[in-house]
Design a protein that fits this description.
InterPro entries: Transpos_IS110, Transposase_20. By secondary structure, this protein is of the alpha/beta class. The protein has helices at residues 2-11, 48-61, 82-89, 114-129, 143-148, 150-174, 189-198, 209-245, 252-260, 268-279, 287-293, 318-334, 339-348, 353-377; strands spanning 14-20, 25-31, 39-44, 69-75, 93-97, 137-138, 298-303, 306-312.
Length: 396
Amino acid sequence: MAQAAVQNTTATPVLYVALELSKDTWKLGITLDRVSKAKIRDVRARDLDGLLAEIEAAKKHFNLPENTLVKSCYEAGRDGFWIHRFLLAHGIENVIIDPASIEVDRRSRKVKTDRVDAQKMAQLLARHGDGERVLRVVRVPPLESVDERILPRDLKALKKRREQAANKIQASLFEHGVDLNPRLGSFKDKDFLTALKAARQWDGKRLPPECLRSVKRSWQLYSLLTKQTKELEQRQRQVLREARAEPEKATSAARKAAILSQLRGVGDIGSYVLTTEFFGWRDFDNRSQVGALAGLTGTPFQSGNMGRDQGISKSGNPRVRTLMVELGWLWLRWQPDSRTTKWYHEHVGKGGSRAKRKAIVAVARKLLVEFWHFVEHGVVPTGAVLKTTNAEGSPA
């Protein structure tokens, strides 16, 4: 079958170009087939004119017509999707490769250079062009969807940094026997600084001067992060309010988030993360694809008479996977009469914490499929309760 595929492609030559990206230099691995050693060319990073010039030069080198089909690839990474969009705009069929899908030599020591990587990727791309399943291709989201993900991701990052600042304040004060938690109450700058000034060590002495300065700096950072967090939360609520009021004008992710937040136990933050990261721009054909993309499906290991399960694959979006486990616990609390909650209690019974941890992953997988049916087909999860709406039409 592979030989037949090669013979079919030789009738209409295809130029394969693999891009090995780095900060300063891009290495191009160029070949016509899966057998020949790839020709290597260097291009200055982000030199798009130079990239196109090398492709045209390769066509002349191989005596190919100007309208020859060009297929390219590069590994998913920090460069994102802009190179992909540039190549498509210039008539080049590009795919972005999941780096984890590239086969690796299992010897303890192996040659690893950008040149070797470019040559290997070019050969794999040619095999992929012949129809072999040697690569996993990353699906590229629309530019609008990429932009929408910034808000929930920034919000999570701000909360993490704020927690770090609060922990630093507490740790600095605990060192001297002072228990002053910046998270408790509604501290304002003046109130916290007054409490800090009044704080005393075990022997009644004031805190050391450098410790005070350090805590004040951390408090300023904590206050700034708290302010920015509230601004982003307000912006997120505004997006969902607009989506509920005028769904026809809202983006796909915002519209689906407004729908998903109608379920009791699913808040605005969780629904917005799920739709921007998962449901907003992806199309699923079946429930298996939903669970697999989140990395919540099992990973069997079988050899001869030996067989066991290695746990969930964790190959999907970690943000979605983590969030779904959290929503699973919330679902058990706020949707006690749902079919999924009843399944959990029947399955776990009087089991210990280990059984509960394993079962909650199954709950997360089941809920993700039910959420998919709800936002795409309007099917309410069996036994689930929707939130009541307030005067503004928002879930209460």
